[in-house]
Amino acid sequence: MTQRAVIRLFLVDDHPLVRDGLRARLDPLPTLEIVGEAGSAAEALNAIESLQPDIVLADVGMKDMNGIELAALLQQRQPAARVVMLSMYDNPEYVQQALQAGARGYVLKDAPASEIVAAIEAVAAGGTFLSPAVSQRLFRNQAPKPLLTPRESEILSALGRGESSKQIARDLNLSVRTVEAHRQSIKRRLGIEGQAELIKYAVEHARQFDRG
Question: Per-residue pLDDT tens for 169-188?
Answer without folding.
Answer: 999 999 999 999 999 988 88
